[in-house]
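Example 9 (inverse folding). The structure is encoded as follows.
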C-alpha cells in the first residue's frame, strides 16, 4: 500500500443526521457489514447509516465516509509504516462522532483500530459507558481465544454488547459483565452467495489474500507450488481471485514475473463469483483468511500456505497460542486444510497437496464430511441474525 493521504475531516451525514455508524476495516468485514445493512434497511428503512468501510457497504446503502478497506494493513511492522495516517483517521472519526452523535456505533472486527476507538469514545464521555448517549456495539469478536485474552476486560469496560460468529466464543467472556450473543456465521445466512463451489473437473484455485503486502509475499509461493504441480498435470489451469483493484494490480505484477505460467493462471474478481456463478474449483491453495472458510464450506479440498514479514512472524509466534491458523481447522480441531507456514511452505510440498486433492477420492470425501460438520457448528441460532441483534440493541 502506498502512503495514503491523511484525512483531515470526514463528510457530514447527507441526511443531516445519523442513527448508526459502522466501522469495518477489512474486505471481509465490509462484506459482513453490508449484509447487516441490507437487512436493517429492509426491516427499518427509516434508519440512517454511515460507514467507514468499503464498496460493499456503499452498495448496501450506507453513506461511505472513507474507504477503510483500501488502506487496510496487517502486522506490527506494516502498521508502523502507516501510523501517521491511522492516527489522523482515528482523530477525524472521534471528531465526527462527537459532532453528529449517532445512536450507536457498530464495530466490525478490526480490533487494532476499533477497540482503541471504543476506549476513546468512553474516555471522552461520548459513549453510554462514559456517561454519553452513543451505544457501542461490536460484531465479530477479536480472536481473544488466540491471543491478547485480557482484552475481554477492556471490552467489557468500553462496550455495551458483543455479537459473535463462532459458538465457542460466548464462553470466552463468561467471566466479564459484557452481554455476548452468538448470532450464527454470516456464511450460513439465507442470502449468502458463496463465491466458490467444488467441481472435480474445475481449475485450481489460488487465494493469496486480500491485502497488498500479503499478496506480495504469498502469491509467488502459490504460483511456485502450482508450477511444480504442472510438471505432472500439464493440462490443468488455475484461477486466482482478488478482492480489489489495488490487489489486482499487485497480482498482475507478480504473475508477470512467471512467464512460464502465461495462459495457465487467470485473475478474476471475487465479486464476480458472487454476482453471477460461483467459481468452480477442484482444489485450493489459500492463505489463512476469510476465503479459506468459504472454500471449506464449499467442500473444496486444499491446503493453507502462509508467509509474512519475519519480525511479524516472530512476534506472532510469541503472542499467538493456537494449534492452527485456519479457522475451519480451529473449529473442527483437526487439519481439514494442512497448514504450511514460513519455511515449511515449499513449492514441492504444495504441489504434492494439489496432487492428493485432485487425484484421491478419499481426500474429497473427507473434505465433504468435514464441511457438513462445519455447517452444523455455524448454523444460525433461534435468537436471530446480527441485524436483528443490532435493531434490538438500538430499540428500533
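The amino acid assigned to each position is listed next.
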Amino acid at each position: 500500500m502506498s502512503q495514503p493521504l491523511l484525512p483531515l475531516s470526514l463528510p457530514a451525514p447527507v441526511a443531516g443526521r445519523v442513527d448508526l455508524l459502522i466501522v469495518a476495516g477489512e474486505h471481509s468485514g465490509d462484506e459482513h457489514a453490508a449484509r447487516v445493512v441490507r437487512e436493517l434497511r429492509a426491516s427499518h428503512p427509516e434508519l440512517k447509516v454511515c460507514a467507514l468501510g468499503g464498496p460493499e457497504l456503499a452498495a448496501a446503502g450506507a453513506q461511505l465516509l472513507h474507504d477503510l478497506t483500501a488502506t487496510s494493513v496487517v502486522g506490527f511492522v506494516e502498521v508502523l509504516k502507516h501510523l501517521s495516517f491511522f492516527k489522523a483517521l482515528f482523530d477525524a472519526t472521534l471528531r465526527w462522532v462527537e459532532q453528529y452523535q449517532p445512536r450507536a456505533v457498530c464495530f466490525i472486527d478490526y480490533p487494532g483500530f476499533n477497540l482503541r476507538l471504543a476506549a476513546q469514545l468512553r474516555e471522552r464521555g461520548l459513549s453510554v459507558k462514559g456517561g454519553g448517549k452513543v451505544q457501542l456495539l461490536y460484531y465479530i469478536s477479536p480472536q481473544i481465544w488466540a491471543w491478547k485474552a485480557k482484552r475481554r476486560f477492556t471490552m467489557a469496560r468500553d462496550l455495551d454488547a458483543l455479537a459473535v460468529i463462532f459458538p465457542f466464543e460466548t464462553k470466552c467472556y463468561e467471566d466479564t459483565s459484557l452481554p455476548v450473543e452468538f448470532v450464527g456465521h454470516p456464511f450460513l445466512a439465507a442470502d449468502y452467495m458463496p463465491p466458490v463451489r467444488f467441481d472435480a473437473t474445475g481449475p485450481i484455485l489460488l487465494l493469496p489474500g486480500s491485502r497488498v503486502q500479503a499478496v506480495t509475499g504469498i502469491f509467488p509461493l502459490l504460483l511456485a507450488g502450482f508450477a511444480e504441480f504442472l510438471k505432472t498435470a500439464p493440462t490443468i489451469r488455475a484461477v486466482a481471485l482478488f478482492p480489489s483493484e489495488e490487489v489486482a494490480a499487485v497480482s498482475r505484477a507478480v504473475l508477470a514475473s512467471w512467464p512460464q505460467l502465461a495462459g495457465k493462471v487467470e485473475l478474476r474478481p471475487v465479486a464476480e463469483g458472487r454476482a453471477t456463478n460461483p467459481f468452480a474449483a477442484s482444489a485450493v491453495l489459500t492463505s489463512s483468511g476469510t476465503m479459506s472458510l468459504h472454500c471449506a464450506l464449499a467442500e473444496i479440498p486444499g491446503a493453507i500456505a502462509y508467509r509474512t514479514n519475519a519480525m511479524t512472524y516472530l512476534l506472532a509466534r510469541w503472542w499467538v497460542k493456537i494449534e492452527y491458523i485456519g479457522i475451519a481447522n480451529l473449529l473442527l480441531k483437526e487439519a481439514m486444510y494442512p497448514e504450511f507456514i514460513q519455511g515449511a511452505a515449499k513449492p514441492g510440498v504444495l504441489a504434492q497437496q494439489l496432487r492428493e486433492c485432485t487425484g484421491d477420492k478419499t481426500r474429497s470425501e473427507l473434505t465433504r464430511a468435514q464441511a457438513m460438520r462445519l455447517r452444523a457448528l455455524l448454523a444460525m441460532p433461534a435468537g436471530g441474525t446480527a441485524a436483528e441483534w443490532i435493531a434490538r440493541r438500538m430499540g428500533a
